[in-house]
Specification:
The chain has 459 residues and is an alpha/beta fold. The chain folds into 3 domains: 87 residues, 3-Layer(aba) Sandwich (Rossmann fold), CATH 3.40.50.720; 205 residues, Mur-like, catalytic domain (UDP-N-acetylmuramoyl-L-alanine:D-glutamate ligase), CATH 3.40.1190; 137 residues, Mur ligase, C-terminal domain (Protein-Tyrosine Phosphatase, Chain A, Alpha-Beta Complex). Helices cover 33% and strands 25% of the residues. It contains 15 helices and 21 strands. The chain has a 10-stranded mixed β-sheet, with helices on both faces. A 6-stranded mixed β-sheet has the order 16-17-21-18-19-20, sandwiched between helices. The protein has a 5-stranded parallel β-sheet with strand order 3-2-1-4-5, with helices on both faces. Strand 14 and strand 15 form a beta hairpin. Helix 5 crosses helix 8 and helix 6 packs across helix 7. The longest helix is centred in the middle third of the chain and has 16 residues.
Length: 459
């Protein structure tokens, strides 16, 4: 595979932040196509080690000296413009491209691009669609924002015209893509360190719909109020397929849940029953995610058997309601939920999972998100048996003292939720060892490193 914007296969591409889940996937696509790749990240990981094994030159730490014999530099939105490698690239007049623009250029080389957008559920829905696509003999390229066992990680580099990817709305990144099919799973207030308010977010999703060509398709959740508003307020030229549990062209009918909270349902399109789906991931939100993947698969004319068997074989991605193990009769599950809407959906799924009591360890993700959605977070843990709040995971931000996990804990306790603040993972594990009993469910939740708590407990 070669790309119009880097036609010379001998060129070297450097990734600033190569250990990120999307950046590493792009790097792996290039390596598989024969390009020379280097990259840097703040710390080594199994992802950087994997890239190194595949032939990438990996630097740990950001340093201007890492820009060595480089023809193009790709950078993640998480880096700041005072990054020494970014500065060195500017000084040497090396072309710079952000991750989203680079991914958009790669998409240009494919005919059937599917861009899965929405505030929540992108990784799961992309992974569901990946399982369906893998049942078809079409050699696709798949880029997932998590690790999926079916493709051996977060990327599958194919050589056909089919490209399946997540489309992140952060900093309006997805407007640089070239979708043939775009999905909008939901629209919620998030990334308010970039967006002014929910109207700014909705306007950006309207622009996303408008980049879908006239012959292309939008697959949209008509039961999400903000999506419904966006559809009603725009004049769009592409084809639109709506879905929902009780409304839309594509619906889930006769939904039943098993003892683990996983759904079986009939898929109905324009009043006609097409087939039955048996999911192996829990929760009502996953019925909606499955419908979105079905919609894209039907547009691409995939077989009913590929759709049903693909979805049945999907058992989740890493860090999405992932069963980590059991110890002394305690089940340990980890989930990436870091937004109030996601938290509520995950807790709903957990309540339908066999348990005596639920112990939830939640790590808020970024100060800006915690502050901007403070009241929503405070109201997300109703009827929680036991909530343990870890300190806020800073990610790319600095602690200004305006908001803290203790403040959030006080607000949650004011709502009569059994909540404690514990400030180190070691102390959290000690607390769990003292309190967890056989039959309990331990749920670690957040987009930071809170997954380590469950793994420490299991050890």
């Amino acid at each position: 595979m070669s790309f119009d914007f880097i036609k010379d296969i001998n060129k070297k591409i450097h990734f600033i932040g190569i250990g990120g889940i999307s950046m590493s996937g792009l790097a792996e696509i290039l390596i598989s196509s024969g390009y020379k790749v280097s990259g840097s990240d703040m710390k080594s990981s199994h992802i950087t080690n994997k890239l190194k094994e595949k032939g990438a030159q990996i630097y740990i730490g950001h340093n201007g000296d890492n820009i060595n014999d480089v023809d193009l530099v790709v950078y993640t939105a998480a880096i700041s413009f005072d990054n020494p490698e970014y500065i060195k690239s500017k000084q040497l007049n090396i072309p710079l491209m952000d991750r989203a623009e680079f991914l958009g250029h790669i998409m240009k080389g494919h005919k059937y691009n599917v861009a899965v957008a929405g505030t929540h559920g992108k990784t799961t829905t992309t992974s569901m669609l990946a399982h369906i696509v893998l049942k078809e003999d079409i050699d696709p390229t798949i880029l997932v924002g998590g690790e999926l066992d079916a493709i051996g990680g977060n990327v599958l580099a194919g050589h056909s015209e089919y490209f399946i990817t997540e489309a992140c709305e952060y900093k309006a990144s997805f407007l640089k893509f070239f979708p043939y099919i775009g999905t909008i799973l939901n629209i919620d207030a998030d990334h308010l360190d970039y967006y002014k308010d929910i109207n700014h977010i909705k306007d950006t999703f309207k622009k996303f719909i408008n980049i879908i060509p006239k012959e292309g398709y939008l697959v949209a959740n008509i039961e999400d109020e903000n999506v419904k508003t966006v559809l009603s307020e725009g004049n769009y030229s592409c084809n639109i397929l709506t879905y929902g549990l009780n409304s839309g062209s594509l619906m889930a009918k006769n939904v039943n849940y098993n003892a683990l909270g996983c759904a079986t349902f009939d898929v109905q399109k324009d009043g006609e029953t097409l087939f039955q789906i048996n999911l192996n991931v829990p929760g009502e939100h996953n019925v909606l995610n499955a419908l979105a993947s079905v919609g894209a698969a039907l547009i691409l004319d995939f077989s009913n058997d590929s759709i049903t068997s693909g979805l049945s074989s999907f058992k989740g991605t890493h860090r999405r309601f992932e069963l980590k193990g059991t110890k002394n009769g305690v089940t340990v599950i980890d989930d990436y939920a870091h937004h109030p809407t996601e938290i509520k959906a995950t807790l709903s799924a957990a309540r339908n999972y066999p348990h005596n009591k639920i112990y939830c360890v939640f790590q808020p993700h970024t100060y800006s998100r915690t502050l901007s959605l403070f009241e929503d977070f405070s109201n997300s843990f109703y009827e929680m048996d036991n909530l343990i709040l870890a300190d806020i995971y800073a990610a790319r931000e600095k602690d200004t003292g305006i908001v803290s996990s203790n403040m959030l804990g006080d607000s949650i306790r004011d709502k009569h939720v059994n909540c404690v603040n514990i400030h180190s993972f070691d102390e959290i594990v000690d607390y769990l060892n003292l309190n967890l009993k056989e039959g309990d469910l331990l749920l670690t939740m957040g987009a930071g490193d809170v997954v380590n708590v469950g793994e420490m407990y299991l050890k």
